[in-house]
Amino acid sequence: MTPTTPTTPQRPPPPSDHAEQAEQRELLTYWATRYIWWKSPEEALRSPARILTQVMNLGDYEDVQRMVEAFGDAALREVLRHVEAGQLNERSWAYWQYRLGLATPGHVPPLPTRRFP
């Protein structure tokens, strides 16, 4: 499987309890308005992984720290595995590959690319 062909819907693993789920939804709603400005929050919330990807790419320090705390590394690894071409810049791609233990020193997997038939 290549990183350009997601095989599962872009959704992080479900939260473990109702309070955690409510916190995650509140954060996603806030980030939808901040990082997915071209869509309504309701429309953006249909793709939580896209919101998380935008935070991974454009988020400030505080938002990134809140995202890691609220969603955890496992969920962010899953998001990163299904990121589409153009959703992350090279710097963010490399940072998250190292941060989530998906890269080894000196070897970062290539960014996803678009493939045309």
Gross geometry: globular
In whole angstroms, how far apart are the ends?
A: 16 Å
Assembly type of the chains comes to single chain
What's the total helix number?
5
Main sheet summary: none
Supply the helix-strand structural class.
mainly alpha
* C-alpha Rg (nearest Å): 14 Å
Q: What is the fold's blueprint, element by element?
A:
Layout: H1 18-35, H2 41-44, H3 48-58, H4 61-81, H5 90-99
Helix pairs in contact: 1-3, 1-4, 3-4
Task: Give a nutshell description of this structure.
The chain has five helices and no strands.
Task: List key phrases describing it.
mainly alpha, globular, disordered N terminus
Tell me about this structure.
- The protein is mainly alpha-helical and 117 residues long.
- The protein has a domain at 21-99.
- The protein is 55% helix and 0% strand.
- It has helices at 18-35, 41-44, 48-58, 61-81, 90-99.
- The longest helix is centred in the middle third of the chain and has 21 residues, at 61-81.
- The chain is globular, with a radius of gyration of 14 Å.
- It starts with 17 loop residues before the first helix and ends in an 18-residue tail after the last helix.
